[in-house]
Amino acid sequence: MKIATYNVENLFDLHKSGNEYKEYIPFTKSNWNRRTYKIKLKNIARVIKDINADIIALQEIESLQALKDLRYQLKRDGLYYKYYKIANLKNTTIKVAILSKIPFVYADEIAVTSSYRYRNILEAKFKINNEDLYILVNHWKAKSGPESMRIVSAKKLLKRIKELGADKKIIALGDFNSDYEEYKSFQRKRRLNNTDGVTGINNILGTIHYQNRSNKVKVSSNEFYNLWYDTPSNKRYSYIFRHKKEAIDNILVTKALLTHKGLHYKKGSIKSLKEKYLFHGKYIYRWQVTRKYPYRNKGKGYSDHLPVIAEFIY
Fold it and tell me: Left, alpha or beta for 31 (phi > 0: left; psi -120 to 50: alpha)?
């Protein structure tokens, strides 16, 4: 079973809601129109088809309509996701969503806070060979905000994990806007480090204690294992910022998925999709928008993130 996460970079529909970024207000000088929207849908669908995941978590989807349009494009291209859900109870500009070939037992939203500065988490439960699997889709605050804001989301996620039971088979994935070793990379950045060195992904979610252990991974209850540690360090990236490769899209699993009993993680399967068409020179071939105002969509490119994929055996 293949599970993936992909930040598709600003998939907006063509309905004016009043919450759009300026460059995505439809039918204006932004050049966001039927032609560019169709190109964006086809390009993102190409990537998702190449992944061909059984379950894929998505970030930066504006609306249910945008999700349905993407799903329809995928169907036209030969990949059908019967089941889908978007976290749209809160009217944030962009949202998380999920597409699945496997039926949900349920799919619900977790409100991080009532503030629009925090996107809801999407929780989906599946039954795989009579085993429960929980998937929680995240999109934490970008680095435009300090680490304390990402900690708010981390604490809410951890609270939910404790409610479900840390012994359960749980995958938390998405765009955490946090490198897999964020506790190292943000230390000298005063604008980000307003928490005395504490990070959401490493300290709150417990993805820090096993990092220097040589062979056997030991994960305690209420801790996650970051699957990035199961691949060579030079392959651990999904994003490039100012020439630096970062792994801000993560797939985290609980201890129960690291055994070889029943449903479990397939060792060595974590990777980011690195097809040639997803790169433009040394950079990820993101969706192209002019740099000067008024911002205009050029109608080419994909996303500023690479998808991240892992396989599970059942």
Answer: left
The structure tokens listed for 23 are 């460059």
52, 101, 152, 167, 219 from 81: Cα distances, Å: 10, 5, 32, 29, 33
Element (H, E) at 83: strand 83-86
Cβ atoms of 263 and 169 within 8 Å: the answer is yes
CATH architecture of structural domain 2-313:
4-Layer Sandwich (3.60)
- Quick one: CA dihedral 138, 144, 149, 150, positive or negative? positive
- Residue 208 · residue 185 · CB < 8 Å: no
Identify each DSSP E strand in 114-155 by its residue range: 121-128, 131-139
pLDDT tens profile 45-90: 999 999 999 999 999 999 999 999 999 999 999 999 999 999 999 9
How many residues are listed for the chain in this entry? 314
Spatial neighbors of 219 by CB under 8 A, at least 6 apart, are: 206, 210, 225, 254, 255, 258
End-to-end CA distance of the chain: 8
- CA dist., res. 255 & res. 170, Å (int): 9
Written as one letter, the residue type at 310 is: A
Answer for the pair 101, 21: CB distance below 8 angstroms, yes or no.
no
Cα-based torsion angle of the residue sequence 32, 34, 36, 41 in order, rounded to the nearest 10 degrees: 120
The CA-CA-CA angle for residues 248, 141, 150, to 5°, reads: 85
Give start and end residues of each alpha helix (H) in the chain. 34-51, 64-76, 147-164, 182-185
124, 107 Cβ separation under 8 angstroms: yes
What is the CA angle 89-90-93, rounded to 5? Answer: 125
Q: Does residue 209 have a pLDDT over 80?
A: no
pLDDT in tens, 282-296: 999 999 999 998 899
